[in-house]
Amino acid sequence: MLTPFHIAVAVRDIDEAREFYGRKMGFAEGRSSDHWIDFNMYGHQFVVHLNESIGKDGKIPQIKNAVDGHGVPVPHCGVVLNFEDWERLAEKLRGIIDNFIIEPYVRFQGQPGEQGTMFFTDPSGNALEFKGFRDIEKDLFAT
Q1: Who's near 67: CB < 8 A, 6+ residues apart?
Q2: Strand pairing of 36-41 and 44-50?
Q3: Is the pTM of this model over 0.70?
Q4: Does 3.10.180.10 match the CATH number of domain 1-52?
Q5: Digits of tens for pLDDT over the chain (143 positions)?
Q6: φ, ψ (nearest 5 deg) of residue 83
Protein backbone atom coordinates (compact mmCIF):
# COMPACT_ATOMS: atom_id res chain seq x y z
CA MET A 1 0.00 0.00 0.00
CA LEU A 2 1.28 3.45 -0.90
CA THR A 3 1.45 5.97 1.88
CA PRO A 4 0.40 9.59 1.31
CA PHE A 5 3.05 12.06 0.29
CA HIS A 6 3.48 15.49 1.85
CA ILE A 7 4.60 18.40 -0.28
CA ALA A 8 4.69 22.10 0.49
CA VAL A 9 4.86 24.88 -2.11
CA ALA A 10 5.20 28.63 -1.88
CA VAL A 11 2.30 30.87 -2.93
CA ARG A 12 2.04 34.62 -3.31
CA ASP A 13 -1.43 34.97 -1.76
CA ILE A 14 -3.22 32.64 0.67
CA ASP A 15 -6.74 33.68 -0.37
CA GLU A 16 -5.87 33.20 -4.05
CA ALA A 17 -4.49 29.72 -3.26
CA ARG A 18 -7.62 28.84 -1.23
CA GLU A 19 -9.79 29.88 -4.19
CA PHE A 20 -7.73 27.87 -6.70
CA TYR A 21 -7.06 24.66 -4.76
CA GLY A 22 -10.17 24.64 -2.59
CA ARG A 23 -12.98 26.09 -4.64
CA LYS A 24 -11.84 25.50 -8.22
CA MET A 25 -9.88 22.24 -7.88
CA GLY A 26 -12.23 20.94 -5.17
CA PHE A 27 -9.57 19.83 -2.68
CA ALA A 28 -10.83 19.73 0.90
CA GLU A 29 -9.10 22.10 3.28
CA GLY A 30 -7.53 20.76 6.46
CA ARG A 31 -5.65 22.75 9.05
CA SER A 32 -4.71 26.31 8.20
CA SER A 33 -3.41 29.60 9.49
CA ASP A 34 -2.91 33.05 8.03
CA HIS A 35 0.29 31.79 6.39
CA TRP A 36 -0.43 28.22 5.26
CA ILE A 37 -3.20 25.78 4.28
CA ASP A 38 -3.26 21.96 4.17
CA PHE A 39 -5.26 20.55 1.25
CA ASN A 40 -6.32 16.95 0.64
CA MET A 41 -5.04 16.26 -2.89
CA TYR A 42 -6.44 12.80 -3.64
CA GLY A 43 -5.48 11.59 -0.15
CA HIS A 44 -2.10 13.33 -0.11
CA GLN A 45 -1.16 16.31 2.05
CA PHE A 46 -0.53 19.27 -0.23
CA VAL A 47 0.38 22.42 1.69
CA VAL A 48 0.62 25.98 0.44
CA HIS A 49 2.81 28.42 2.39
CA LEU A 50 2.67 32.17 1.95
CA ASN A 51 5.89 33.62 0.59
CA GLU A 52 5.43 37.37 0.56
CA SER A 53 8.74 37.86 -1.27
CA ILE A 54 7.07 36.55 -4.44
CA GLY A 55 4.84 39.66 -4.63
CA LYS A 56 1.20 39.78 -5.72
CA ASP A 57 2.11 39.84 -9.43
CA GLY A 58 5.09 37.49 -9.19
CA LYS A 59 5.37 33.87 -10.23
CA ILE A 60 7.56 30.95 -9.16
CA PRO A 61 10.40 30.68 -11.73
CA GLN A 62 10.76 27.46 -13.70
CA ILE A 63 12.69 25.94 -16.57
CA LYS A 64 11.32 23.68 -19.28
CA ASN A 65 12.79 20.38 -20.43
CA ALA A 66 11.89 18.75 -23.73
CA VAL A 67 9.84 15.57 -23.24
CA ASP A 68 7.78 13.93 -25.97
CA GLY A 69 7.88 17.11 -28.07
CA HIS A 70 6.69 19.39 -25.23
CA GLY A 71 8.37 21.80 -22.83
CA VAL A 72 7.81 20.18 -19.42
CA PRO A 73 8.08 22.66 -16.54
CA VAL A 74 10.57 21.92 -13.78
CA PRO A 75 9.97 21.72 -10.91
CA HIS A 76 6.46 20.27 -10.92
CA CYS A 77 4.37 17.89 -8.82
CA GLY A 78 1.00 16.21 -9.02
CA VAL A 79 -0.84 12.94 -8.61
CA VAL A 80 -1.08 9.71 -10.60
CA LEU A 81 -4.72 8.68 -11.11
CA ASN A 82 -6.51 5.79 -12.75
CA PHE A 83 -7.40 6.72 -16.32
CA GLU A 84 -11.11 7.25 -15.75
CA ASP A 85 -10.47 9.67 -12.87
CA TRP A 86 -7.86 11.45 -15.00
CA GLU A 87 -10.38 11.87 -17.83
CA ARG A 88 -12.95 13.34 -15.41
CA LEU A 89 -10.36 15.72 -13.98
CA ALA A 90 -9.23 16.78 -17.46
CA GLU A 91 -12.82 17.57 -18.42
CA LYS A 92 -13.35 19.59 -15.23
CA LEU A 93 -10.09 21.50 -15.68
CA ARG A 94 -10.89 22.44 -19.28
CA GLY A 95 -13.54 24.70 -17.73
CA ILE A 96 -11.21 26.11 -15.06
CA ILE A 97 -7.71 26.45 -16.53
CA ASP A 98 -7.29 29.26 -19.04
CA ASN A 99 -3.79 28.38 -20.20
CA PHE A 100 -2.53 24.81 -19.99
CA ILE A 101 1.23 24.45 -20.36
CA ILE A 102 0.45 21.11 -21.99
CA GLU A 103 -3.19 20.38 -22.84
CA PRO A 104 -4.57 17.02 -21.67
CA TYR A 105 -3.47 14.29 -24.08
CA VAL A 106 -2.33 10.66 -24.16
CA ARG A 107 1.41 10.18 -24.53
CA PHE A 108 3.37 7.03 -25.43
CA GLN A 109 0.21 5.74 -27.13
CA GLY A 110 0.36 2.01 -27.76
CA GLN A 111 3.70 1.74 -25.91
CA PRO A 112 4.65 0.57 -22.43
CA GLY A 113 3.82 3.35 -19.99
CA GLU A 114 0.98 4.84 -22.05
CA GLN A 115 -0.51 7.65 -19.97
CA GLY A 116 -2.80 10.61 -20.00
CA THR A 117 -1.02 13.77 -18.90
CA MET A 118 -1.61 17.49 -18.52
CA PHE A 119 0.39 20.40 -17.12
CA PHE A 120 -0.75 23.78 -15.82
CA THR A 121 0.22 26.26 -13.12
CA ASP A 122 -1.55 27.62 -10.09
CA PRO A 123 -1.89 31.43 -9.86
CA SER A 124 1.55 31.64 -8.15
CA GLY A 125 3.23 29.74 -10.99
CA ASN A 126 3.63 26.35 -9.28
CA ALA A 127 3.57 23.77 -12.06
CA LEU A 128 1.25 20.79 -11.62
CA GLU A 129 1.04 17.56 -13.60
CA PHE A 130 -1.74 15.02 -13.33
CA LYS A 131 -1.26 11.63 -14.98
CA GLY A 132 -3.68 8.81 -15.70
CA PHE A 133 -2.88 5.14 -16.32
CA ARG A 134 -5.18 2.32 -17.33
CA ASP A 135 -3.14 -0.09 -15.17
CA ILE A 136 -1.06 1.88 -12.66
CA GLU A 137 0.73 -1.15 -11.22
CA LYS A 138 1.83 -2.38 -14.65
CA ASP A 139 2.45 0.91 -16.42
CA LEU A 140 3.75 3.44 -13.88
CA PHE A 141 7.37 2.30 -14.12
CA ALA A 142 7.20 0.52 -17.48
CA THR A 143 10.30 0.83 -19.65
Answers
A1: none
A2: antiparallel
A3: yes
A4: yes
A5: 789 999 999 999 999 999 999 999 999 999 999 999 999 999 999 999 999 999 888 998 889 999 888 899 999 999 999 999 999 999 999 999 999 999 999 999 999 999 999 999 999 999 999 999 999 999 999 88
A6: -60, -40
